[in-house]
Amino acid sequence: MKELPSIEQLVPKHVAIIMDGNGRWAKQRGKIRTSGHKAGAEAVRKAVAFARRNGIESLTLFAFSSENWKRPAKEISVLMELFMSVLKSEIKKLDDNHICLRIIGDKGAFSKRLQRQMNEAEQQTRSNSGLNLNIAANYGGQWDITQASRKLAEKVKANEIDPAEITEQAIAGELMMADQPLPDLLIRTGGEHRISNFLLWQLAYAELYFTSVLWPNFDDTVFARAITDFAQRERRFGLTSEQLTVLMQDIETRIEE
What is the full DSSP assignment across the chain? Predict the structure, then answer.
């Protein structure tokens, strides 16, 4: 008889999240959009704590896409200030909890001050191994593939590799987070059903989970629901409903603890 998978096998190693709905959350409450971003920062704290507590190896959050520069200048300014404020206030807590922070994306578009804070935060936490926390900022999946291709082209130009050596594995090795497991679960909040130029290469075989919950309302219950749904996807283990019931009870018990 085939041995049942462990709870550790059912929990995804790498979860990516498109954090959508901050503006709508604020609008529903008669507040300005930027108040939604501030409320969303608290949801980030909860998601990171949940991932750390439940054995997820990597958590990647889509904080600011390359397309977000089209938003009103005032909103972008508030977002940048919020980014700097959160980095400054949270970095010690991340370090104390053995969380390794990495900012993925084209940092060159940010102010020198913010770039300096990003680099300092990454340096302070680089030796931690409890959780890889990747914050995608000024990131786009097409940009990621382009920069990987450019690196390989430079190697060909320098006669370091032959064009025939440009394989899928070679491209994957130059992408952001190449040293981490591929995302096996993508969660998108806010009700939209698309991946919006996020991790286009890396998400090729990921399970997708969409929820109408707006990002500021994303909590442990919603996260656990996504994990439970992921664990029941037949492509992973093809268990019977009776077996899954037992395993889901184990997962829920562990999450509640």
Answer: -PPPPPHHHHS-SEEEEE---HHHHHHHTT--HHHHHHHHHHHHHHHHHHHHHTT-SEEEEEEEEGGGGGS-HHHHHHHHHHHHHHHHHHHHHHHHTTEEEEEES-GGGS-HHHHHHHHHHHHHHTT--SEEEEEEEEE-HHHHHHHHHHHHHHHHHTTSS-GGG--HHHHHHHSTTTTSPPP-EEEE-SS--S-TTSSTTTTTT-EEEE----GGG--HHHHHHHHHHHHT-TTT----HHHHHHHHHHHHHHHH-
